[in-house]
């Protein structure tokens, strides 16, 4: 059992050491087309996600590696929206870093946010069964910041720095075209909500007049 676990850990380490798969240049239009929309009649919020837009992959059989994406949670009653970035991190340092905060570009000066942890592999510190460490974290982003970043979608990528409790920091980036694509998708979704709500409001008003 220990030998099998050691082989699994070695395979994970080799996958992380393989070169990352290069991605073609991304445009805001392509990003907009790839944004995924998730709706559930038992949920008040719809979720628009850029997860399919520009996956970061690695290995002979490409698998997600240090991938990140944006999410927009749109209230289907009011059109109000909140934005979130999700970041995955894989590493083989032998110590669980426990990422706590993030610094990110937000204008003249960087902004700081506390992280929420969605998933983690704390067992990676085990000596007998070494495996790759994994953390998935996220934080809420102001819409105004994303709008400013999207003003120049062809410019440099948006930069972030994740700060751990132990070990090395993790630097990441996200294409500005991906930000622009999500904002365009959110604007389209809000317009569709308004068009859908207008006939319902008119019907309710007509019914009220004939009571």
Question: What structural class should be given to the helix and strand makeup?
Answer: alpha+beta
Q: Could you list the spans in which at least 5 consecutive residues all have pLDDT below 50?
A: 1-8
Strand order in the sheet with the most strands = 1-2-5-6-10-9
What's the main sheet like? 6 strands, antiparallel
Number of strands: 12
What fraction, in percent, of the residue positions are helical?
Answer: 25-40%
Mean pLDDT level: 83
The global form is globular
Distance between the termini: 75 Å
Order of helices and strands: HHEEEEEEEEEEHEEH
Name the quaternary structure. Answer: single chain
Give the strand content: 25-35%
What is the number of domains?
1
Number of helices: 4
- Radius of gyration (CA) equals 21 Å
What key phrases describe this protein's structure?
211 residues, alpha+beta, six-stranded antiparallel sheet, four-stranded antiparallel sheet, 4 helices, 32% strand, disordered N terminus
Question: Describe it for me?
Answer:
With 211 residues, the chain is of the alpha+beta class. The protein has one domain (2-206). The chain is built from 4 helices and 12 strands. The longest helix has 34 residues, at 176-209. The chain is globular. The termini are far apart.
Quick summary:
The chain has 211 residues and is α+β, with helices and mostly antiparallel strands. It has helices at 2-17, 28-34, 143-149, 176-209; strands spanning 36-38, 45-49, 57-58, 63-64, 68-75, 81-91, 99-104, 111-114, 116-120, 133-141, 158-164, 170-174.
